[in-house]
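REQUEST FORM: STRUCTURE PREDICTION
Request ID: SP-0412
Submitted by: Lab K.M.
Chain count: 1
Length (residues): 183
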Amino acid sequence: MYGDTDAIRGLARGLRRLGDDIRWEADRLLTRAEAVPWQGVAADAMRALARHRAGELRRTAGLHDDAAQALDDHADAVDRVKRLIAAIEERVLGMIAAARDRIAGLLGGLGGLVDPVDDLLDRFVPPPSGHRDWLSVDLPGLDLPGLDVPGLDVPGLDLPDLPHLPDLPDLPDLDIPLIGRAA
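STATUS: Completed
RESULT:
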C-alpha cells in the first residue's frame, strides 16, 4: 500500500513511453513491409504477416498503457491513504494535547479526579508519524467517518479498492530488440 508515489508515477510514465515506442516500431514495421516492391503470393503473405505482427505490437502497447494507468490509479490510492493517515494522526494528537491540558489544569489547580478518557489519551502511545497503524487507532471520541479528507470518502472508513487488472494472455518470447524512436 505504501510507496513513493513519485516513483510509481515515474514507472507509469516509463510504461507509457515504452508503449509509444512499441507503437512506433509497429508503424515502422508496417511501413517497411508495405514499401517492399516485391510482388506475388509470398509478398502478399509477408505483408499480411507484417500487418498481423503490427496489430499484436499495438495490442501490447495498449497493455503497457493499461499497466501505466493501473500504476497511476495505485499512486492516487496511496496518496489518498496517506492523507487519511495524516488526518487521523492530526486528530488523535490534538485529542491527546487537549487531554493533557485538561489534566495539567486539574493537577495544577485544586486537584481532582482525572477523566478516564483523558487518562487513556494521556497514556496512549501513538504509532510513528505516517505509519499505517494510524488506520487501526481506536480511541473514545475519535470520529473517523467525520474526517474531512480531500479525495477520500470515509463513510465507514472503507478504503478505496484498487482496480483489478485482467490476467494477461500468454505472450510469446520475442527476442527482437526494439530500436528507439528518433528524437
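NOTES: The chain has a mean pLDDT of 81.
Reviewed by: T.R.
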